């Protein structure tokens, strides 16, 4: 897609405007909720307008930016020293979510993604691949919604275990205040030292216009945990429970879609329907792991059987 060149000019103009407009620096014009933006004063409306880097998409700086636009902005930057570990050859998917996505007019992922190449696949609403890769004839008829996100954190040893009630309250406050997520979408906080699970749940019918999507809240959280905050300015991420800081050692994020993913795996045909992609967010590296689960009659997966990398050869139980 030659959108890059088309974009270069407006971006340049924006830059120029930002520089020359500094004499009118009565106020600084930045986007508090997304530092991956280019902002400038709009002389007509007198407003500070911000566009996501790498697109022409104007973002609303009083709420979170969609994950699709954030991923896209991230891919514009030259690759740093970020080193990924090589997934085990037993891993079926090697997608840790890093690709240059196509976003729709609302900034959401398009159902079909091709990573700017001729290899395409279908993704869910968090942008994670849920089908085999195909060529450009691949059809993805709808964007399947990820209605549950389970964030599993392991904290470093604290002097003593956290009080579950306090931990719960602190994490709810964090998601409400920092990620602007409506409290009803944080279904539960489970805790058994040292593992904390944050369960986000939001199906299409529950989400009102203007509500932050759990996909975006989880992504902002993921980047905060990695020390790559997306907020501009000094809104540092420090969570503590009764004065005891919560230091995270390892994070796993499980995404559960409303419909079973469609991977063709000969080995796993009869009986096994659902495969869920898990993104491991370690502080230094990201690895994608597959989780195998069984589908309940309801068509929604209530229970998730988690299998990690080393266990993938086993037949799924349940
Ligand atoms: C924005 O401007 C105010 C004063 O106008 C200043 O105090 C503040 O530090 C500035 N913020 C940034 C991020 O530059
Ligand atoms: C997408 O393309 C980039 C750059 O070519 C590559 O580094 C990345 O691994 C690709 N991602 C996927 C999921 O194919
Ligand atoms: C946790 O703290 C709450 C008050 O915030 C207290 O009522 C409760 O008894 C504490 N629980 C434990 C197990 O200490
Ligand atoms: C959405 O979630 C609510 C509460 O969890 C549930 O009652 C409802 O059936 C769900 N709707 C759909 C379409 O899945
Ligand atoms: C920006 O988001 C806020 C919070 O969701 C909403 O109230 C406001 O109407 C949005 N502004 C625009 C211009 O869409």
UniProtKB/TrEMBL annotation:
InterPro entries: EPCAM-Trop-2_C, EPCAM/Trop-2, EpCAM_N, Thyroglobulin_1, Thyroglobulin_1_sf. Residues 1-24 form the signal peptide. It comes from the Eukaryota. The chain crosses the membrane at residues 268-293. It is a single-pass type I membrane protein. It holds the Pfam family EPCAM-Trop-2_C. One of its GO terms (biological process) is positive regulation of stem cell differentiation. It is found in: Membrane. Keywords: Disulfide bond, Glycoprotein, Membrane, Signal, Transmembrane, Transmembrane helix. Gene3D superfamilies: Thyroglobulin type-1. PROSITE patterns: THYROGLOBULIN_1_1 (PS00484), THYROGLOBULIN_1_2 (PS51162). Residues 65-140 form the Thyroglobulin type-1 domain. Belongs to the EPCAM family. PANTHER family: TUMOR-ASSOCIATED CALCIUM SIGNAL TRANSDUCER (PTHR14168), TUMOR-ASSOCIATED CALCIUM SIGNAL TRANSDUCER 2 (PTHR14168:SF5). May function as a growth factor receptor. This is Tumor-associated calcium signal transducer 2. It comes from Orycteropus afer afer. The gene is TACSTD2.
